[in-house]
Protein 1
Amino acid sequence: MENSKNIYEFGRVTEGDASMRALLGGKGANLAEMAKIGLPVPPGFTITTEVCNKYYSNKNSLPTEVWNEIKKSVTKLEEQQGKKFGDKKNPLLFSVRSGARESMPGMMDTILNLGLNDETVEGHAEKTGNPRFAYDCYRRFIQMYGDVVLGIKAKDEHSIDPFESALNTAKQNANVKEDTELSAEDLKNLIRKYKEIVRKYSSKEFPQDVFDQLHGAISAVFESWNNDRAIIYRRKYNIPSEWGTAVNVQCMVFGNMGETSATGVAFTRNPATGEKIFYGEYLINAQGEDVVAGIRTPNPIGNLSTDMPDVFAQLNQVCQTLESHFNDMQDFEFTVENSKLYMLQTRNGKRTGLAAIRIAVEMVQEGLINKETAIKRIPADSVSSLLVPIFDSDTKKEISSIASGLPAGPGAASGNVYFSAKKAEEMHANGESVILCRIETSPEDIRGMLASEGILTSHGGVSSHAALVARQMGKVCVCGAGKLGIDYASKTITVGNVVIHEGDAISIDGSTGEIFVGKLKTAPSEVNQVLQGTLDAKKSYTYKLFDTIMSWADESRKLGIRTNADSPRQAKLAFQLGAEGVGLCRTEHMFFEEDRIDHMREMILADTTEGREKALSKLEPLQQSDFEGLFREMRGYPVTIRLLDPPLHEFLPNEENAINTLSKKLGVTPERMKLRVSSLKEANPMLGHRGCRLGITYPEITRMQARAIFKAAANVIRSGTQVDVEVMVPLTAFAKELKNQTDIIHSVAQEVISSTGIQIKYKVGTMIELPRACLCADEIAKEAQFFSFGTNDLTQTCLGMSRDDVNSFLPKYFDLEIIKTNPFASIEPGGVGALIKLACEKGRSVRENIKLGICGEHGGDPASIKLCHQYGLSYVSCSPNRIPIARLAAAQAALS
Amino acid sequence: MENSKNIYEFGRVTEGDASMRALLGGKGANLAEMAKIGLPVPPGFTITTEVCNKYYSNKNSLPTEVWNEIKKSVTKLEEQQGKKFGDKKNPLLFSVRSGARESMPGMMDTILNLGLNDETVEGHAEKTGNPRFAYDCYRRFIQMYGDVVLGIKAKDEHSIDPFESALNTAKQNANVKEDTELSAEDLKNLIRKYKEIVRKYSSKEFPQDVFDQLHGAISAVFESWNNDRAIIYRRKYNIPSEWGTAVNVQCMVFGNMGETSATGVAFTRNPATGEKIFYGEYLINAQGEDVVAGIRTPNPIGNLSTDMPDVFAQLNQVCQTLESHFNDMQDFEFTVENSKLYMLQTRNGKRTGLAAIRIAVEMVQEGLINKETAIKRIPADSVSSLLVPIFDSDTKKEISSIASGLPAGPGAASGNVYFSAKKAEEMHANGESVILCRIETSPEDIRGMLASEGILTSHGGVSSHAALVARQMGKVCVCGAGKLGIDYASKTITVGNVVIHEGDAISIDGSTGEIFVGKLKTAPSEVNQVLQGTLDAKKSYTYKLFDTIMSWADESRKLGIRTNADSPRQAKLAFQLGAEGVGLCRTEHMFFEEDRIDHMREMILADTTEGREKALSKLEPLQQSDFEGLFREMRGYPVTIRLLDPPLHEFLPNEENAINTLSKKLGVTPERMKLRVSSLKEANPMLGHRGCRLGITYPEITRMQARAIFKAAANVIRSGTQVDVEVMVPLTAFAKELKNQTDIIHSVAQEVISSTGIQIKYKVGTMIELPRACLCADEIAKEAQFFSFGTNDLTQTCLGMSRDDVNSFLPKYFDLEIIKTNPFASIEPGGVGALIKLACEKGRSVRENIKLGICGEHGGDPASIKLCHQYGLSYVSCSPNRIPIARLAAAQAALS
């Protein structure tokens, strides 16, 4: 629905509030909110996100009526401020900033000091009595406008943009290091240079009409919604392109008016660790972009207590106000103009997974939020940050770090070092672990950062682009390690007499900021150490956080959580991490081990049922012993064992040599072996002779597996441990297929029960992984005591996409936004989800209390878990390491 | 629902009628009906098909209460006939025959002369005054009982069964040729031998208790419902195993009482050609099985007018009665006992496709049935018998036949001759065309007959097993060619001094009975000759039949019929056969031709869009000219053109040599070529980079094809022929994929329309061939002006079965009755059909009048056409030769 109002004021008169972020964007809504609660916000107005859509549907152009309204709003501000936009004497200046519904840091564009031209700059100088400052504002304005509106940029990542280059020349000429040291005259000359650059690159004069400037800037912000960086970001975070961005036009305040002015970025808590301390950084005599861009390394916020004690005290107060008002950790920007504090932005701070958990848990303890809010606020995936390996503490004692920087993204990362985003991406695609090392990062580096294990910079502070993005991506990051001499040309890092070359291995500890040469040995996370009994729970605050959040999640969730485990070892780990059973044991994985594969091959090569039975009889005791291990580790929780699934040719060797060796071993001719290998080759093995089709054509396989299962169960029960067996038939399409297999399984079960005299609790069910199985789930439910959705195969068949082959077109699909999420990562709701939903309904229509689960990779994906909750499944099953994520995601699904 | 009555009487008292075939089986119901309309039927009773199910659910045993009822019914018959079952003086004898709901000729078992034992045979001899006859009956009874009940059979197809062997010895000892020549004493000795055989093979004495005999015989008939032959037959004709068989117990009448007795089989019209003549054969002094078994070649029915003129006149009268009562061609069995006629069975006669059409058409002309009945009565597939090639008449004049037999299955067949069913099956599997040559066929030969092009026998008449089965299967058959010396041992046929060896090519004309050495040249069918203008329509009665039935079908059907055609030639043929448009033109087939494949390969090997466009520009005029041909042949009817569908690697060579040749031709290194070939290889190409995924990643392909289509359309319109274009996008899963492609197609269409100034009528639609497309058909219908169901791919994905790989397990599935019909031949209704139905509903919910069609092989399958009619599709599309079948099947669907 369209809103008729295009523009909302804030400051003196405030029309919006925090609840209106869809319309005003996050920045606009929070500026309004801060103004409402009495924080010092320079006045301005927000052009709504709906205008963004109008802009695009009006052929990428501002509709005339909107422009007229903007001009009216400017007039109001002129009246309020007693200044005039474009006035030679007393000019009103604006910042123009984007502000989408969800914050997209560094993705969108900003313009400061708008309204300056050759004439107004003089008025600005006169009015402020500070010509140097005025010219600094003007040259900044030209530079930003040139970049953002006129598209004058560096040609590639190795070149410097022409404005920066001119600035450097000016500093050289003046023989100074910092741009703050340039004189008014230097700056006037620089402005001339800048205008020449504009003429040369855009074939136009720099616009002197301030309304032209404003029109261009607003349009450019709207255009920036569809630049490459924004699109990539939106794709990664699933932000719909229809949301659009708002534009905030705000009266300028100046952090660059001299030594009593400053600008900074701060957090109400540490966004990397979650610790409750005032955290951030600032620059004296600077404008906002200087801090974020990482060009100058800013001062830690603590220093402000000596530089500007009053402002520091006021900021501490602001922290408390913001947290108690927004009930969440805030990330805010401020400017001090001649010792007066202004708030320019606040938002819920991006944070690392670790910080998200710590802040949520501690805020509950502080009474700021309740448990449910805490659970909802932690991205489920972030729990994994508590489980990733850390550097081994003994090793760290032996090898000393060569340098250190700011710990901006906690965790341990090792990899080969590369100096450009492109190269990092390339080597990652080649299978290398990569550490991206840059002097500073910029939005153009996003893809390379995504491809890296860790990010290392020599410039920029904890709110630099590198730090910000790394935190959000959950990447390990050390930034502002000033001791590193990074040279792009020679592709080296030099620290003292240590020289690290491109491709060399390094390790970075994002929790401490340390940098090491070589790949450091890692140790299990603290949580794993506690679970494994090698660390006292009381000594690990991380474990306490983990345990707290898991117990809260378990209170809320409705879904059961099981694990996919093919060995007792995996089952044990999963049990420690909270698994309530095994949802999928892929029995074929047991066949791949060294001593077993040859028996399997013998079975496949046999010509007769007897020959197959002979080979199977060798596998049986091995399988049985694995099953016993699984049952013991699961201590009476259900264990779902899937019968042999993959096509048989997967077990046979392909290469000449391997065939010869095997043929000798099994006493068949290589020719016969080759013949058999090639006779088992299939055009589309995914749709071939596999799943229950194997058990139906070779019932002796099913009999062997069933016998191993039930004999194992009997043994374990005899030794005093409860067992809950679920035998699962794969790839059922027809109820009669299942009937064929369940008949065998039940009869073997009865044999074992009567021969051992031990009662075994068991169910027989099936994978639901073909569209027909979903469509005919009512018929199948008559035979099946449980369903487990095999979403991988279901995705392949429902979408007609082989997981092994999609990479030839899926990247293009993402580019074109044909699909937004990899359907093999997250359940595709329109087709695959619809089939699951239908199968649940049909299954229940026949067997009211049928157990419904999901195994396969989707079982550990939060978005898919949410769907599973909605479909009313009984449980999800995932790999052991994703169990904690699944527990949290299940709680979130229940609370949403 | 179970019927409480287990037994129905017929004869003196008649409880059933023709409408009760589900319960009484075809034979039982029609015996009752004949009795009701006054035809001479020996009395008896029918045990219902429900008892068959009771038998199986009672652990393969007759329930006691049923047995008691049977004994009561025997008592009633004893009272009616004044004889007593098992009586030494005046014994009552029975035949026991199976009788299923649908006639299954030769599949089930029959026992005659039941009630004879060492004592009753003497009474039978005395009462009939004919000891020779009595002993003949007894030895026949032992032989049949031994075979059917006790399972004493020949070991394999090359051995003779022990009874037959003993019979031969007896004939040799008596120095006679025919068994009718054996004396009473000879037969008495033979009976002794027979009883020894029973003792030896079954380790039991031949049962002397007549009730034991009856109990055994009834049980054996029920058992025969599940013998291999019956199961194979049911599978072929889709008869559910739950139907069961009835058992008919009937008082014996004897065709073997001497020269005034006879037995025969006759048809009210010729079942091979449909001609309205009394047709059949008989044997004097024989029992029923002798005729059908083909051991003695019987006399043509016409001879009966001299042998038994009264009976012949009476039979002619029976023919008229039966046809006017049953309104269909009847196949009946009769026995003449001492000049008195008895009717033992009547049923709707099996007939060839040609006969089915002729009979149906002529019965309408005779006023016996209406057009709708005629249409419903012709198996749709049988129309194809009017279209298959015939032997070229000129060639037949040059080459004279070496022998001739009875024309029992019309058509022309050439192939290599084999002498056993097993070998025929084997060589067929090797890809050979096979003619199965047997002295006589038996039910064991069914699989081999199915595998053969034609069947040739030296023994047996037009109602022999060979003739019967060939007619029903639509196989070419020449039987009873007595001049052929067939020797199984040396595997030869000798005719005069011509010797034909196993594997030699022969030709048989089932319309004339002629047999030729070598493969004869064939000519188009008469229908095709008329359609092609090389034969005057008035001179061909076959064409007249074809034309009549097609015009009746067109009056009734609701579905449109289109063709799959990839070339103008195919389109022309289809148009002649009645196609109302092209439902599928697979454009890639055009690329495989000699002069084009290299351009295609050049396109695939290109690295850049420009390189691809260059190669495509060479293909464009070639495609355009094909499309022009299609449009011209279709004369304004819609032509659906599918864009490139298969994965690109299908176009590249695989073999070393071919790669080298091609690499020279295209000027790339063989290494690069190999690299590209292997980079295009996919794990599961069916689920890979194909369909619209190609057009999305390489939009220049779509642009080229669209341009060729619209430019062709413009040219044809310019020349004065109307054109109705439908551009079809393959393998859509997501609406946005389709949007991507339709945008390109519409923009190319507009370009061509504005550059040529010619208005082109066109639609853009999509294949629906993935489960997701069905589930999201509402979204897709927003973009698609029509849907065409690609049931082949839909079957593959819905069932998770690759058509190229199913043969490894599908035969087993048929054996186990997990599925009954090949899902690639007939739409699988539970999954695939359900998806189609859903997609139709969803498509119409968004676009009420959306055109819905089906292309792919299922479009020519009558069962699938029926489903398509039910789902309310607009049309079906099939290969040109199946168009007439589809027209008829569509009419049948509309009438059912």
Protein 2
Amino acid sequence: MNIYDVAKMSGVSIATVSRVVNGSDKVSDRTKQKVLAVMEECGYTPNVFARGLGLDSMKTIGILCPDISDAFIAQAVAFLENRLHKYGYDCILGCSGYDTEAKKVHMERLLSKRIDALILVGSTYAGHGKDDNNLSYIYEAAQKTPVFLINGLIEGENIYCCYGDDFQAVYDVTSELICRGKKRILFLCDSYSYSARKKLAGYEAALTDAGYPALNELKFYTKNRIHYVRDMLLEQKDLEFDSVVATDDCLAIGALKYAKIKGMRVPEDICITGYNNSQLSVGCEPELTSVDNHLEKLCDNAIDNMLKVFQGEENVPAKTEIPCNLKKRCTTDF
Amino acid sequence: MNIYDVAKMSGVSIATVSRVVNGSDKVSDRTKQKVLAVMEECGYTPNVFARGLGLDSMKTIGILCPDISDAFIAQAVAFLENRLHKYGYDCILGCSGYDTEAKKVHMERLLSKRIDALILVGSTYAGHGKDDNNLSYIYEAAQKTPVFLINGLIEGENIYCCYGDDFQAVYDVTSELICRGKKRILFLCDSYSYSARKKLAGYEAALTDAGYPALNELKFYTKNRIHYVRDMLLEQKDLEFDSVVATDDCLAIGALKYAKIKGMRVPEDICITGYNNSQLSVGCEPELTSVDNHLEKLCDNAIDNMLKVFQGEENVPAKTEIPCNLKKRCTTDF
């Protein structure tokens, strides 16, 4: 018996049950009576939401990420921990890797602790786009505790998502390359995550809108390792391209290393764009034009929403999309 | 009343008290009786060590680091979390920053949770070398729970340290530069942490052994930001140097950017070495020669020792020094 069941049996939303539990005056008396009756009937103890209010709360938040050694994810966890600490919350950290079974195990572990909320860091938790059954463990988690997803979208009750507008960002950068006369734009990617799918869709839409085909041979999937990317590209003897749209800075730098070995001038002979505007983008030479997806804003939004949910606020947005912007440096001529 | 007091009052080590608590047969009957008598007299409940054994344990380890967005630290936490998860332990993560007061607050927070051990990630926790009173909060923590320090040395009961041989690594690289005829070797550093002090000592010793002075003007302290380092070096119009020994890859890449603007060829006109062998060292151009301090070994050692302490093993080493090695790439001619 959990808050989800109470909501279902009362015919109201989880947020409404939360408001009843928290004594909000924004609920009609009729609704309040109905919810309280169901709660009494079921012997339901409203621990999940009460916790967030400091009643029976351990003031502990579970943070699950695939790999904390990834610069983007480490930066997100740094932002989250910093704000959570200010509000008096501790963080239990789980690093699940990218495999669904391992994600389930790690999530179970976090849920078995007395956490007030679960924050998922990374697009990988929004599935691979093929089999949405993969997400059932997240829906189950959301029945026990509010779930906040950073950089991906899962639609479901008690799940709050915040992500950059990756479609538009890649659409814009691809269109810019087309405007500069680029004909063979390589899409360089390392996953099929929610974010990666949005980026691919942006790339394809820009080509289609310009009347170009989106050729499969120009969608290149590889591992997220600089030298690996370089070597994979060098192996493709017949693959020609005059520009690269990469979904991560690390991939873009692999392309930069490739261009150097091939004796291509950047950006004169080949334009390259990265993603995440990481420290790597200023460490390389020439320095990398990269999409900034405003990670700090995404993290701030998740924490803001979390605090609102804890306070039983109405209308906490289930999804928030934040525009990205292109940080122009020296690997493009725009 | 804690295990430390019991040890003191019994006139034995914490490890011996732990062995008594755990029923080890490696303790003489005489000692056992003495310890048990003290425990009974004080009404001591042996929770700390019992926890590690699964008795009354939350199977939770506190990990305190200054900044998880630092690549070196993030990599360490990734290694630690991975192994801890395998042994069934969860991680509570605290990010304290570099200020002593904030470190104390974060440590108190972690200790107030039921943690089985505390892992400190980063040389910063071993103090600034000037005021060792700064370390009293760590000695106090060690009276409550075993403390494991990665990449630094604090000597004290119930504190176990594992660190790279930074002195030797910088001694060797400085000596190599001297052999190559370098006369003005810039030491580029961003802190006064334990590790930074060992590196400085190695630099100075190599110069002294070669009969060179260790000039203060060539010990350059700056922030750990690529462009900041570059700009600070450009501002020093009168500072001349023919090589750079940096205590972090990020600093070294700042020097690389400086060299590019000054039109110096690397390594012909200037040799540059970094530290930590991070992803940045292969992202830059030319790729950076960097000291690898075997972070994974340091983390593995900490976990191995932790498990031994939990099992009440004798002779768990209080300090372990692991040799570093130089990963040679293109910013040096050796």
